[in-house]
Amino acid sequence: MMVDQHGPADVLSHSQLLDQGERAAVALAKLGVRPGDQVAVLLPMSLESVVVTLACIRLEARRLTLPLGDHLGFVRHRLRTSGARVVITAGSCAVDGTVRDIKSGLDRALWACPEVHSVLVVQQVPRPVPWQPGRDVWWHEALAAGPVPGGPYAGAMSSSTDQPMDQPADRAQGRPQGSSAAPVPPAALIFDDPLDRRSADDSDQGWGDRSSVDGARGDLLRFLEEKPPHHL
């Protein structure tokens, strides 16, 4: 079966990227991906590849990157030995000015990989794609299903460290319920600029303004030890 679908936009804002990461995490979770599972990825350098990585981080899954090109035997071997059950691939993509049909090559590799039950397809080039109903799913359709406000992944990937509203206090603080152990900061993706924060050994004094018993030697030591190296 051949289907034709136009590709997604190639530009995302910061908030859209985080939202796509949450949506991809929901989609993979619905396909049965759990912490420690392998998610096979057969994509060129693209925004969707970044989104997949964010989703794997959120689910504590492991990303298995597969090579593009004529590597049928290697791809089949990696899928069988990794135990991956979900594959994310491009329908077609442009490599070095040439359009390659990635999905058709993957389908040949999957003939010997019955454990793979779901294939998410990102269409980057508007070309017909071989399709297996019941197994293949369009990437954009899978992401359109979530997340929902207040859902299990809401706020999991953001530039804020606020506690998600749907988690008990003990769980949100990284400790078992009822435990008296010291809380562990929850995992989060923080996108602030570390250079906006003042380092512990920084000062407002310019070179030569700080008194030193050994003169130039002290200034040289400060120059070498200052972190981050603002003088570079």
Automatic annotation (TrEMBL):
Ranges of Basic and acidic residues composition bias in the record: 216-232
InterPro entries reported in the protein's UniProt record: AMP-dep_synth/lig_dom, ANL_N_sf
Signal sequence residues: none
Region (Disordered): 150-232
Residues annotated as domain AMP-dependent synthetase/ligase: 11-133
SUPFAM superfamilies: Acetyl-CoA synthetase-like
Keywords: Acetylation
Name recorded for this polypeptide: AMP-binding protein
Species of provenance: Streptomyces carpaticus
